[in-house]
Amino acid sequence: MKAARISELKKELAKLDHDDLFDVCVRLAKFKVESKELLTYLLMKADDEIGYADELCDEIDANLNTPGRIHKKTLRKIVRWMDKSLRFSGDKETELQVRIHFCRRIQDKRIRFGGCRVSENMYATQLRKIDKAIEKVHPDLQFDYNQQLSEITTPVYH
Question: How far is CA 144 from CA 4, 43, 136, 141, in A?
Fold first, then answer.
């Protein structure tokens, strides 16, 4: 089955009454975990963007505070989860706060990439995403975020 375009889906959803729309949402949430997570964000977290960003930062801290060495597999898992969670929000300030927090924690924990190109590229990609997101926030905030970016662009330990 080919998926319908968003405009077609909007028209069909507009035709539904409250109970049918409710049933569609519940069924969608049961079908896939990511849909359930998005629905959770939209219904319970979207009105408190600062709290959501803090929650994401706390989750990053919890994942990086595991005993022993942090391996590239762990970093990749955190980055995938972080990207997915930030897609739910779509707010650039939240994205900046969380990505900068992630990069700071890598530096604070003195995570050594040891010449691992994958991990080095992963960190560099986060810096590029931060730089790109800074361009999309209000000019008054750009200065503050650029300062924070300059703090984390110092070389990561090798």
Answer: 42, 31, 13, 5
pTM: 0.83
Q: Using CA atoms, how far apart are residues 104 and 150, in angstroms rounded to an integer?
A: 11
Whole-angstrom distance, CA of residue 27 vs CA of residue 135: 38
> Tell me: the pLDDT tens digits for 67-123?
777 778 888 999 999 999 999 998 999 999 999 999 999 888 887 777 778 888 888
Instruction: Give the pair of three-digit tokens for residue 95.
Output: 């994205």
Q: How far is CA 98 from CA 25, 49, 53, in A?
A: 29, 12, 6
Spatial neighbors of 45 by CB under 8 A, at least 6 apart, are 51, 52, 55
CA 19 to chain centre: 32
Which tokens hold the place of 117? 């190109």
- Phi and psi of 154, rounded to 5°? -65, 150
| CB hemisphere CA count around 116 (13 angstroms) | 16
CA 49 to each of CA 78, 136, 141, 143, 149: distance values in angstroms, whole numbers, following the listed order: 20, 17, 16, 21, 21
